[in-house]
Amino acid sequence: MRIGTQLKDKQPTKNGRLVSTIVIVGVYLLLFIFNSLSDFFNNWSPLRPIVNQDQLVDTLVNASVRTLFSAIVLLIISTVFFLGLKEIANLFFQQNKWTKRAFVLLNSTYFLVSNLVNIVLIQFSIVKPELTLIVYHDKFSNNMIFLIIVGTILLLNLMINPIFLKLNQRLNKINLLHLFGLSIIFSLGFYGINYVLLNKGWTTFLYLIGIIVMIDSFAYIYGKRFGKIKMVPEISPNKTWAGAIYGIITTIFLMVVVSILYAIPIIIGMVTKSNQPLEVIDPHNLLVNIYYITFYQKTNNFIIFWWVFCGFAILVLATIAILGDLYFSYVKRQYQIKDYSNVLRGHGGILDRFDGFCFVFIAFIVYQIIISSVR
């Protein structure tokens, strides 16, 4: 996300920024394409399980091909994750190259292996019915899997971070706090991204990206035009209250419009007074994948409540995206760097691009766990 000017540095060329932008867009397109082909829950993929006599039927071939496409998606995400870990390692482990490599290798290996296991469990859950309970039918098991992953990440970083900082002669409370914060937030954010792509599909991923990109862009535009009062000038000089407030309002309005577009199948079903179940009315589960519940066949009061809740959820996620930007900028200020790297010329580093992303996707996963547990 955009940040204020910090230390003077060579301005990247326009060509470099253009190339980086093309690469970023290309990565997103590849994610959307391969994810749509590997989508297990929606009807986008020709390889999806089919309904036969009210039961889902899958084949070993289809499950294997979907797993391959899911693995490609994971490989793309893991590459970006690997580059982000290198930026964290370069910031804290400058004295000892071995600790850089070990930090990146341990975190990236666990990320790759744990997500690959999750892919196999999901894609083969119909072919191997004994996996179904583990994957999504048992809320306790599903939440326990997530807690095990989170707990392992926390334990891993609690064990290795102090040791690696000490080997680099940089062990103190400030460095340990910032290293732990960046490592955990970045790791959980990318686990969230992979979870959304694998379990919720590319439409949910696009929806969340829409919130992040809109608040980022509109806050910048309004801030340039109307911003006078700075939010936190010592952290991000370009962040203004006007930009944040107007940006959030615009984001809420536009994303509610997007939500209405996502809800068209449901609206049509209600207007025609269809008695068909939700999975028939909305086979792609556009809103279900995001909010877990919809307003289909509900009372008027619930419909009003649902749309108010939708706007509130967008407000919360947009605010969280801004906080993510400020946190990552704060860490850069502490270490007097302009960007985490120049791997994306004109855009900074991976951490500069995925600051708000990490916070938003973590918040989304927490919401999914809470709502699925109480429903």
Question: What would your notes on this structure say?
Answer:
It is found in: Cell membrane. Belongs to the CDS family. The chain crosses the membrane at residues 18-37, 63-83, 104-124, 144-164, 176-198, 204-223, 244-268, 304-328, 354-374. GO terms for molecular function: phosphatidate cytidylyltransferase activity. The protein has one domain. A two-stranded antiparallel sheet has the order 1-2. Helix content is 72%, strand content 2%. Helix 5 packs antiparallel against helix 6 and helix 8 (241-262) packs across helix 12. It is built from 14 helices and 2 strands. The protein is globular.
In short:
It catalyses: a 1,2-diacyl-sn-glycero-3-phosphate + CTP + H(+) = a CDP-1,2-diacyl-sn-glycerol + diphosphate. The protein has 375 residues and is an all-alpha fold. Helices cover 72% and strands 2% of the residues.
Choose one word for the global shape.
globular
Fraction in beta strands: under 5%
Low-pLDDT residue intervals, each spanning 5 or more residues: 1-10
Q: Could you give a short account of the major beta sheet?
A: 2 strands, antiparallel
What's the N-to-C terminus distance? 35 Å
Instruction: Supply the number of structural domains.
Output: 1
Q: Give the integer mean of the pLDDT values.
A: 88
Strand order of the largest sheet: 1-2
Organism: Mycoplasmoides gallisepticum
Catalytic activity: a 1,2-diacyl-sn-glycero-3-phosphate + CTP + H(+) = a CDP-1,2-diacyl-sn-glycerol + diphosphate
EC number: 2.7.7.41
Keywords: Cell membrane, Lipid biosynthesis, Lipid metabolism, Membrane, Nucleotidyltransferase, Phospholipid biosynthesis, Phospholipid metabolism, Transferase, Transmembrane, Transmembrane helix
